[in-house]
Amino acid sequence: MAATMTKNPLPKPPKPRTAGRPSGGAGLTKQRIAEEALAQIDEFGLGAFSMREVAARLDVYPATVHWHVSTREALLAEVAALVMAEVAPPPGRLIWKEWLAELFRRCRAAVRRHPNVAQLLGAQLVSNGSLPMELVEGVLAALSEAGFEGEQLLEAYNCVVAAMLGFLTMEFSPLPADNTQAWAEELRERVHTIRPLDHPVLTRNLPQLANKAFILRWDNGTTVPLDGSFERHIQITIDGLEAFARRVEAA
User: Fold this and answer.
1) For the chain, which residues make up each domain, given as ranges?
2) 30-82 has which CATH code?
């Protein structure tokens, strides 16, 4: 009797792919990705930032990171928002001048903790929907208390944001990544060989200015912070706002 032949069962067709979250990275959140990106920027600098490296540090595929944050720019926006999250002082506790002064100090403290993001903040604060609106609301409320409204409120608001970030962007500007020591030595020598006949005022004040004045520095705020200049910057900014408010009121 002939042996009956058994047919091998056909393989099951693969399940169709569906759009959605990539496999892996269970429990991963946008917040966690931003924290890891910030850690990478803190360690290696903004120039070395890479979404692929962030994914590797999180032990997930790059597609998993992209599922949460679509582009490099979007992730950098989340990093900026993370750094600025606790910058705005609580509302209702300080008069407007004290609130703005505290805002400036808290912003500088945040940048000092993460100096490699200084350049990033200037770019991201131009327009960033991820940033806490409490910051915007707080500045507007302080300026409204000072007496600004309408077009003058807009002008004062832009001045405050520019003053807050402009100083920090310059104080914590990154040094050259390559040959940093040679670059610093060259700049130091150039500053100290300025000709008195060509620049008499600069030469006379050079002992106070060298490595402590913008343009004449070879260190940044991480090693040579400009504490005194920053406090004076706050006072000059607020004095200017007060004078502006008086002119608006008198008009």
Assistant:
1) 30-82, 175-219
2) 1.10.10.60
pLDDT per residue as tens digits for the range 189-222 = 998 899 999 999 999 999 999 999 999 999 999 9
Q: What share of the chain is helix, strand, coil (3-state, %, to 5)?
A: 65, 0, 35
pLDDT in tens, 87-125: 999 988 999 999 999 999 999 999 999 999 988 887 665
Do residues 229 and 214 touch, judged by C-beta distance below 8 A?
Answer: no
Query: What's the whole-model pTM score?
Result: 0.83
3-state secondary structure 62-124: HHHHHHHCCCHHHHHHHHHHHHHCCCCCCCCCCCHHHHHHHHHHHHHHHHHHCHHHHHHHHHH
Question: Burial, 134: exposed, middle or buried (Cβ in 10 Å; 0-12, 13-18, 19+)?
Answer: middle
